[in-house]
Structure formats: structure tokens, C-alpha cells
Design brief:
There is one protein chain. The chain has 1 helix and 4 strands, in the order ββββα. By secondary structure, it is mostly beta strands. The chain has one domain. The radius of gyration is 11 Å and the shape is elongated. The two termini are 19 Å apart.
Length: 51
Amino acid sequence: MPSKIEASGEGKFICQKRLNGLVLRVVYQEYLDRILVITAYPGKRSRYEKD
């Protein structure tokens, strides 16, 4: 389960999950019959988490 989901505009969403000291971010778009993953990338926690 993602720890955070945020709207990105144009019907896209970004979900985020902590993974080995980084965060894994996945950009996706939902349709009636499927979910389209646009990209997935690791990022630094300090950039994407404010706690």
C-alpha cells in the first residue's frame, strides 16, 4: 500500500512508498477498465517528505 497519494493534475496521480531509505514514486492515470502506469522512479526522501 502506498503511504501517500496526491493528485498531479490532468487526471494523473502520484503514489509514494518508502523503500530502502528512498521513496518509490509512481505516476499513473485511472480509466474505467484499467490503470495506466506512466512512470516509476526512486527519489530522495528529503525532497519528497517534509517530516
